[in-house]
Structure formats: structure tokens, C-alpha cells
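Sample entry copied in:
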Amino acid sequence: MRERAEGKFDTWKEKEYEEHWGQKQRVGRKVLAGHASKVTLGELLAEQLFRVGDVWCFSHSFGRGEGNRVVVEKECKITALTSETITLAIPPAQLKFARLNSNPDQTLSSPSAPFTADTTNENADPSTYDAIPLTITTLTTLERKILAIDGRNPQGRSPNTWRVTRCFRNEQDLGSLFEMRDAYYVYRCG
């Protein structure tokens, strides 16, 4: 009982939880990027770490307390990539998901499939989605555009977009962009 209270099994429990349940744990807020912070989004794009069809889930809570909290969540799908830029389809307004619009007369209020349901079709035309296309070279641009699209103008500290954005491929969590950048840095610098 004393060993357990001293935390001797914490590392084992964290590893076992992730291996058994397949769920990624959030990176602590105080974890530093160190030398990995020198790795840019452009470098990750040049190394082809991302693919068309990947979904980036941005989620950040602004403010504290019941009445002051604003949660901004968006699932942005990668629709095009180059070695320097990434194009994402971002859901409009305060929607978390974009909607597949197979019928031009269909409105956002009518039932339709969630944006993430079409991850198997990498040749999907982004114009068939009710989404806002955005081409970026930095994550700061993505964050600013998401907050502008959301329109609630939350007060509080600006999030570290590397930490609050997770990448999913074929419905598998690849981790936050922070974790992916760190893993790439360790792999590259060995």
C-alpha cells in the first residue's frame, strides 16, 4: 500500500492504460517542447507526416467558471497538401463538424452525414462540403481563422495550437500536433 501511495506504479499504469485501451493521454501543460520547437509545420509537411483526408480536431476552452467559459471546437479536414502549405476545410460558424452536401438544395439545418464520415474517400471534392477552405503555412493562421469563424471572440490566453489540435487518420488518434512534432524530432535527431 505504501509503494502505491509513493507512486511507484504510476508509470506502469499510464503505459498499461494507453496500450490496453488505446486512448492517448493529454500532454501536460507544463511539458516543454525543448529543441523540438525548432521544427516547423513546413518541415513536417516536407516530410509528408500528414495526408489528405486526415482530420485535425481543434479544441480549447477559454475563460473560467460556469458563465465565463467558451469552448471552441472544430474538426478540420485536410483537403490538399504541398511541401509548404496545407489546405483545410473548416466548419462554418460555431459548428464542430462540417456537413456533406450531396444535394445543392440541402441546408445546414437538414440532416446529413457528419464531415468525418467520409475519411475513406481521399478524392472527395472539398466544394461538396458546407465548409470554409483555408490554406495555411503556420498554425497561428489556423488558430486565428478558427476563432474568427467561430465568432464568439473568447477572452483569455491564446492557445498553443500545437497542443490543442489532435490529428486523426482513419479514425485513429495519432496524437496532438505537439506530440507528432516531438516524435519527428526524436526520430530525426535519433
User: Anything to note?
Assistant: The chain has six helices and eight strands.
